[in-house]
């Protein structure tokens, strides 16, 4: 695509810092750069540790969503899951209470500094809260090696797991673990092996996953993510990257456009934010979200504006990533 002028982007950029309800991914505030293009509001929010090459893909997604028409939806409502960070078991009920009507919970496990005993206690609390008909999936973010993952499955299988997301970091590890667990009936989902891979289809070709987790920003936009799902030949779950409601609207556009959506999507994460940039945050109602564009609220943009030094940091990042895209 033809890139919008950098000077115009810099002049229009809003950088916000939103507090979280509970610490997640090691942070207690989520920063994002927001822009309004001809098609509406859009978001550029790669995590702070990502280098410019990786972050530029997120910028491509933001510009695509703000400056280009998006694929037509095939559904209006998107069922979503609750997301339970690596909290203590006694805090699980309070987290789940923020997700109205959600029948599925994704539980973070393999947190650095915690033990399998912590994971078991957390998952047990989630299962107790969800009841026998609730769906419980686990996300290890690649935190286990093969043996650790197999051992964890033995300890956690009693909680009737829907699937296990990115238990190991490498595709070869996922493939071996999938073979070891063939008789357990627990599907393997690939997340980082899709969105952070030089070849996002390698995990599917290797037979290392039963489904893929896709996120619009890290994959370069809605259209790019749709192509990856189609070429993978696997069922897909659309998830978020702890976006503001504007970024979540991009993920919802993706989920609404997928031909098939067999799993609840990880797009209810506005419930992890203590504040947002719109007067009508995309929090689940009746276990679902309605797809559509989100309008930023000028007062909330001012209220949650990042400090001047953080604003400058994000503008510099925007400039570098714009240069990466311009050089392609």
TrEMBL record:
<comment type="pathway">
    <text>Quinol/quinone metabolism; 1,4-dihydroxy-2-naphthoate biosynthesis; 1,4-dihydroxy-2-naphthoate from chorismate: step 4/7.</text>
</comment>
<feature type="active site" description="Proton acceptor">
    <location>
        <position position="215"/>
    </location>
</feature>
<keyword id="KW-0460">Magnesium</keyword>
<protein>
    <recommendedName>
        <fullName>o-succinylbenzoate synthase</fullName>
        <ecNumber>4.2.1.113</ecNumber>
    </recommendedName>
</protein>
<keyword id="KW-0474">Menaquinone biosynthesis</keyword>
<keyword id="KW-0456">Lyase</keyword>
<feature type="binding site">
    <location>
        <position position="191"/>
    </location>
    <ligand>
        <name>Mg(2+)</name>
    </ligand>
</feature>
<dbReference type="GO" id="GO:0043748">
    <property type="term" value="F:O-succinylbenzoate synthase activity"/>
</dbReference>
<dbReference type="GO" id="GO:0000287">
    <property type="term" value="F:magnesium ion binding"/>
</dbReference>
<feature type="active site" description="Proton donor">
    <location>
        <position position="108"/>
    </location>
</feature>
<comment type="function">
    <text>Converts 2-succinyl-6-hydroxy-2,4-cyclohexadiene-1-carboxylate (SHCHC) to 2-succinylbenzoate (OSB).</text>
</comment>
<comment type="pathway">
    <text>Quinol/quinone metabolism; menaquinone biosynthesis.</text>
</comment>
<dbReference type="GO" id="GO:0009063">
    <property type="term" value="P:amino acid catabolic process"/>
</dbReference>
<feature type="binding site">
    <location>
        <position position="139"/>
    </location>
    <ligand>
        <name>Mg(2+)</name>
    </ligand>
</feature>
<dbReference type="InterPro" id="IPR018110">
    <property type="entry name" value="Mandel_Rmase/mucon_lact_enz_CS"/>
</dbReference>
<comment type="similarity">
    <text>Belongs to the mandelate racemase/muconate lactonizing enzyme family. MenC type 1 subfamily.</text>
</comment>
<keyword id="KW-0479">Metal-binding</keyword>
<dbReference type="InterPro" id="IPR010196">
    <property type="entry name" value="OSB_synthase_MenC1"/>
</dbReference>
<dbReference type="InterPro" id="IPR036849">
    <property type="entry name" value="Enolase-like_C_sf"/>
</dbReference>
<dbReference type="Pfam" id="PF18374">
    <property type="entry name" value="Enolase_like_N"/>
</dbReference>
<feature type="domain" description="Mandelate racemase/muconate lactonizing enzyme C-terminal">
    <location>
        <begin position="89"/>
        <end position="184"/>
    </location>
</feature>
<dbReference type="GO" id="GO:0009234">
    <property type="term" value="P:menaquinone biosynthetic process"/>
</dbReference>
<dbReference type="InterPro" id="IPR013342">
    <property type="entry name" value="Mandelate_racemase_C"/>
</dbReference>
<feature type="binding site">
    <location>
        <position position="165"/>
    </location>
    <ligand>
        <name>Mg(2+)</name>
    </ligand>
</feature>
<dbReference type="Pfam" id="PF13378">
    <property type="entry name" value="MR_MLE_C"/>
</dbReference>
<dbReference type="InterPro" id="IPR029065">
    <property type="entry name" value="Enolase_C-like"/>
</dbReference>
């Amino acid at each position: 695509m033809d890139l919008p002028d950098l000077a115009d982007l810099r002049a229009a950029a809003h950088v916000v810092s939103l507090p979280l309800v509970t610490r997640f991914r090691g942070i207690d505030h989520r920063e994002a750069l927001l822009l309004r293009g001809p098609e509406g509001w859009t978001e550029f929010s790669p995590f702070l540790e990502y280098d410019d090459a990786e972050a530029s893909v997120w910028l491509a997604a933001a510009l695509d969503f703000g400056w280009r028409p998006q694929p037509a939806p095939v559904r209006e409502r998107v069922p979503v899951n609750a997301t339970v960070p690596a909290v203590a078991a006694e805090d699980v009920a309070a987290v789940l209470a923020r997700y109205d009507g959600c029948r599925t919970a994704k539980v973070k496990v393999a947190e650095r500094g915690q033990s399998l005993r912590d994971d078991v206690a957390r998952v047990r609390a989630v299962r107790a809260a969800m009841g026998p008909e609730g769906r419980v999936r686990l996300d290890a973010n690649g935190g286990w090696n093969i043996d650790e993952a197999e051992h964890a499955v033995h300890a956690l299988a009693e909680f009737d797991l829907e699937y296990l997301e990115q238990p190991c970091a490498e595709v070869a590890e996922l493939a071996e673990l999938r073979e070891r667990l063939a008789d357990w009936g627990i599907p393997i989902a690939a997340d980082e092996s899709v969105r952070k891979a030089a070849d996002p289809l390698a995990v599917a070709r290797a037979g290392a996953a039963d489904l893929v987790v896709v996120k619009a920003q890290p994959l370069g936009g809605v259209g790019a993510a749709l192509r990856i799902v189609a070429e993978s030949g696997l069922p897909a779950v659309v998830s978020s990257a702890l976006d503001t409601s504007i970024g979540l609207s991009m993920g919802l556009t993706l989920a609404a456009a997928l031909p098939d959506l067999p799993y609840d999507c990880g797009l209810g994460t506005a419930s992890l934010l203590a504040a947002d940039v719109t007067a009508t945050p995309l929090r689940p109602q009746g276990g679902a979200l309605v797809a559509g564009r989100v309008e930023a609220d000028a007062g909330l943009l001012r209220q949650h504006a990042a400090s001047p030094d953080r604003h400058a940091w994000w503008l510099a990042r925007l400039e570098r990533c714009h240069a990466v895209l311009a050089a392609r």
